[in-house]
Q: What sequence folds into this?
């Protein structure tokens, strides 16, 4: 896992505009039915990352207008709650993400929410480059922080370790000047291992 100084990693220098995957109509990448875009490229290099292949900035395929059109068409379905940006590291692909977010807002307004996972902490993003700040300001919910294997906790909702990973209501946090957790947070009271043990008894 790597740490960094503000502005050390810039999307304009690193992003190759590649995506590792696009998964429409999924239930695990945030609340409700979602369309999930996995951006390629990450420098945090967290141990046991679940998508290590997406560290490579040229993993997968180039982001295209055709893919963007498909994402908007899928998001337009009434039962889809929103868009999720994952990676890799979405905040090292701001050129792709900002254009997509802006189009979602132009065509669908605020009827769809936007989530993003990031290795940055919320506090780090506040000190970052203008493009990252612009992207943060357009997102509804961010799950922040590096994954730490030693603090893995499978009872947590939508995240894998208990260190700095928080589900943050971005707009409330920016308005108040302090981190406000997402209001629908529901972490489990039992771990996966505890549940399995009970099922075996």
A:
């Amino acid at each position: 896992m790597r740490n960094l100084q503000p502005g050390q990693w810039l999307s304009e220098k690193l992003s190759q505009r590649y995506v590792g995957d696009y998964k429409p109509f999924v239930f695990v990448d945030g609340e409700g039915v979602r369309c999930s875009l996995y951006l390629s490229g990450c420098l945090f290099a967290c141990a046991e990352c679940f998508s290590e292949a997406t560290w490579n900035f040229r993993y997968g395929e180039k982001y295209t207008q055709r893919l963007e059109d498909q994402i908007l068409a899928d998001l337009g379905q009434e039962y889809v709650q929103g868009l999720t940006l994952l990676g890799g590291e979405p905040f090292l692909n701001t050129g792709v993400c900002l254009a997509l977010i802006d189009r979602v807002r132009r065509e669908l307004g605020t009827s769809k929410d936007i989530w993003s996972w990031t290795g940055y902490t919320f506090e780090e993003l506040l000190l970052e480059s203008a493009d990252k700040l612009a992207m943060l300001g357009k997102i509804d919910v961010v799950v922040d922080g590096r994954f730490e294997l030693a603090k893995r906790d499978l009872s947590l909702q939508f995240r894998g370790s208990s260190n700095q990973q928080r589900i943050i209501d971005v707009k409330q946090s920016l308005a108040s000047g302090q981190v406000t957790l997402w209001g629908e947070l529901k972490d489990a009271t039992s771990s996966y291992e505890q549940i399995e043990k009970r099922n075996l008894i």
